[in-house]
Amino acid sequence: MDLFSGSNVLQDAAEIRAINQVIDSFLYYRNYYEEKLVDSRLSTITKLSEQQRELLGSTGVIKKIKTISSAVHANYSFFLQVVAYNPVSEHSIDIADTLASISDKDQILEVFQNFFQVKHGKQMEYASIPHLERLKSALNMMVRDWSSEGSYERNLTYAPILRFLKKHFPAEKKCDRSNTKILVPGAGLGRLAFEIASLDFYCQGNEFSYLMLIVSNYILNFCTEPDSLTVYPFVHDFSNVMKASDQFRKVTIPDVAPCSLLSENSDNFSMAGGDFLEIYKNDYGGLLINVGPLLWHYENNPNECSIELTFEEYLLILQKFGFILDFEESDMNATTPYSLNHKSMLTHQYKTPMVVAYKPLK
Ligand SMILES: C[S@@+](CC[C@H](N)C(=O)[O-])C[C@H]1O[C@@H](n2cnc3c(N)ncnc32)[C@H](O)[C@@H]1O
Questions:
Q1: What is the distance in A from the centroid of ligand 1 to the CA of 188?
Q2: Is residue 154 lining ligand 1, measured as CB closer than 6 Å?
Q3: Ligand 1 touching residue 275 (CB < 6 A)
């Protein structure tokens, strides 16, 4: 499936740099998280008195901290696969293969540094902490979009949209779904767009995060067997954990193998990289379905131009743009979790109204 359909990001030096920053964060994942999750705690333990260490040892804490390395290693193996199959960066399958065969993390760093020097002719810039921290949310979003466990959440958010589409474009009637174009802006890891394309609609997912695009590219194009990959998405969090086994819970993905379900020649599904507002400037009308809360992406970024609306203000502006709200099909009382860790002692619930609105074609 084409990743950057309709865009020319690969000719743009700034975009290529942004892509490489994401790739570097995948490659650096293991070193960063082993230091952050394991080494720092083990070093704190050495500062404790012998009595305190004995006390901790008796609860299994020290053993638990050491076990984290293997979970981090498994996540790292997944990210190396993502790098090996990434369609855009100069980093290639060779570096991913080489790194996968090394067990010592200091040696990983050395190989990675040499690789960087040869490729870029300069010393490696360490992957930035925000990029590395985002890898946690990519793993959590994999649970939401591509695991059996995520079906609970998908049933609350994606299923109402799919039900609506099936009802309004019934397959058995004379309705040509392949000529019905559906756009999923901010498609994340692409599950909703994939489900819509599986109903034979022409569907394009759009996403401006290279992290999301590169991970979804791997899942959508290269995962041929269900449950063939194992990740440990909850290993990074030490707060609100009931039992150690909850933190080490493994999740297998994908619950369905997307590339075997979409037919070989299917040209009814694509993912487009880039800013939704830039790519789809010309709005000719159509049907809008939105399920979700109101997270304003740039709220805490003073350098961005951002005015955050309430839900009521958003509905008013929608109507000023010519949309007609369909209150019968909308559901203003829906609630769902987002990227839920159902074993955590902390769970969030969002109000996620489903809004259906039409804009007549001019
Ligand atoms: C909260 S996530 C939701 C992802 C997915 N729809 C889901 O339900 O799991 C929102 C996504 O929208 C993307 N996004 C935000 N603003 C965007 C824009 N202007 N153009 C394209 N993608 C955007 C973000 O990168 C993020 O992956």
A1: 5
A2: no
A3: yes
By the 8 A CB rule, do 22 and 214 touch? yes
The domain locations on the chain are: 13-283
Query: Residues 115-156: pLDDT tens digits?
Result: 767 766 666 667 899 999 999 999 999 999 999 999 999 999
Q: Please report, as a single letter, which amino acid is at residue 330.
A: S
Indicate which residue's Cα is closest to atom 12 of ligand 1.
186
String of b and e for 242-252 (b: at least 16 CB within 10 Å)? eebebbbbebe
Is 212's C-beta closer than 6 angstroms to any atom of ligand 1? yes
**Interhelix angle 191-198/129-146, nearest 10 degrees:** 30
**Beta strands 202-207; 269-273: pairing state:** parallel
Beta carbon of 188 within 6 Å of any ligand 1 atom: yes
For 147-275, where are the alpha helices, taking DSSP H only?
151-168, 191-198, 210-222, 244-247, 258-261
Residues 206 and 185: beta-carbon distance below 8 Å: yes
| Six token digits for residue 49 | 């008195």
| Atom in ligand 1 nearest the alpha carbon of residue 209 | 25
Q: From atom 15 of ligand 1, which residue's Cα is the shortest distance away?
A: 186
Tell me, using a 6 A CB cutoff, whether residue 207 lines ligand 1.
yes
Residue 91 scores a pLDDT above 70: no
Q: What percent of the chain has pLDDT over 90?
A: 66
Q: What's the 295 CA to ligand 1 centre distance in angstroms?
A: 10
DSSP summary character for residue 36 = I
pLDDT tens digits for range 20-61 = 889 889 988 999 999 999 999 999 999 999 999 999 989 999
Q: What is the pTM of this model?
A: 0.91
For atom 27 of ligand 1, which residue has the closest CA? 188
> Distance (Å, rounded) from C-alpha 100 to C-alpha 309?
46
Separation between Cα atoms, residue 140 and residue 360, nearest integer Å: 38
The model's confidence at residue 6, banded by pLDDT at 50, 70 and 90, is low
Q: What is the atom index within ligand 1 of the atom nearest the CA of 184?
A: 6
Nearest residue (CA) to ligand 1, atom 11: 186
